[in-house]
Amino acid sequence: MAWGPLVHEPVSSLRFGRVLFVELAPPAADRPGRYRDVLGRDSRPAERAHFSAPEAAARAVLTELERGAAADAVVFGGAGDPLRHRGLGSILRTLRTRAHVATVVLTDGRLLADRDVRREVSEAALVVAWLPSVEDPAAGASAAERRDRFERHVENLASLAREHPVPIAVELPVVPGESDSATSREAWRRAVARIRPERILVIPGLGASAAENLADALERVRGDLPPRAGAFLDDGTLVDRRDFDPAERT
Q1: At CA 17, angle to CA 12 and CA 23, rounded to 5?
Q2: In this model, does residue 247 exceed pLDDT 70?
Q3: pTM surpassing 0.90?
Q4: Could you give the CA distance from residue 80 to residue 110 in angstroms, rounded to a whole number?
């Protein structure tokens, strides 16, 4: 299936600086809101494919940089997880060796259960992985099932950290009154101790940007984490969006 890549105009991200944002994969047909329900009963990752030739994808990015696109980094993300692209490792290597530009990969983390995927994404300068709350409302999953899947998700991230020297950041999505509870905060604290990420990004959970007391909830979660944790409100750029479910977009 040929698709993209989509290379957007440079934009300033609150968390990543001036970036060139690239979408390598389309949304999965059965999972348009890929950051939703990570701990749900149907937590199988979407299939991988060569949505575009790795050489062509890398060239599309290099062309924009050669045209003068000012960027501190190239960020791969969007509605389709970039880890779904089977040429991701090659694309990242090409950009590192030919453009000498930092590359950031945003992922929901499902595909990190695959050892080969972990090897490929380790070519990035930074991997930013979604780490939902252990109390994240998950369709068709009991509390015990969510806890089990949370632990497996954490182990996948910890495996990436053990196997490769790539820096990792984790995104902790906070919903006031739900994921800022003592149970969620303690689970996140233990997960961070296992993964040992370089950055900890405490952010609004899906649909929580307009919630009352959001800033207080973010600080409540951040306060239980190491000093390197930072709390971030949405800054409105495509780079920092995590809600891609058409049913939730207005």
Answers
A1: 70
A2: no
A3: yes
A4: 12
